[in-house]
Design brief:
The protein is built from six helices and two strands, in the order ααββαααα. By secondary structure, the protein is mainly alpha-helical. The longest helix is centred in the C-terminal third of the chain and has 29 residues.
């Protein structure tokens, strides 16, 4: 876990009120939610075309008008091509532009552990689903 440091800031009262309401809905502290917003805002500023979204598997980075970054990188890594050919093949397969694929690559280059963990969890979930399906097939055989 990364070291924690104290940081103090003053915000407009209406922003603090909104932060408190949102944090309560999400069952987070104001500090946790403010930290998330600052981190994500800095990431989005450094990586135009990246947004963050919630879903069943948690909060993750995605392309503004496209899939999650981990999905793009998973396709790229599974490509039989390398270099620019892999970028083009990924764009074609995922119906994305080459620029969108490059946006995902740039984000991945800065946050590989985060994206790799998403890919690993997806593989684990798929393996678990297949194993369950195979057990069910044995019951009906």
């Amino acid at each position: 876990m990364a070291a924690r440091r104290q940081f103090s800031a003053r915000f407009d009262a209406s922003i603090v009120d909104r932060l408190e309401r949102r944090a309560a809905r999400l069952q987070l502290s104001k500090s946790q939610l403010a930290e998330r917003y600052v981190d994500e805002g800095m990431r989005m500023e450094a990586h135009p075309g990246i947004v963050f979204r919630d879903g069943p598997s948690g909060r993750r980075a995605g392309l503004t008008a496209g899939p999650d970054v981990w999905e793009v990188i998973g396709v790229l890594q599974a490509s039989e091509h390398s270099g620019e050919a892999a970028v083009v093949a990924t764009a074609e397969w995922a119906t994305l532009t080459v620029d969108q694929v490059r946006t995902a690559i740039r984000y991945y280059a800065d946050f590989p552990d985060e994206v790799d963990e998403r890919i690993r969890r997806n593989v684990d979930d798929a393996d678990e689903a297949e194993a369950r399906w195979r057990r069910e097939q044995l019951v009906t055989a």
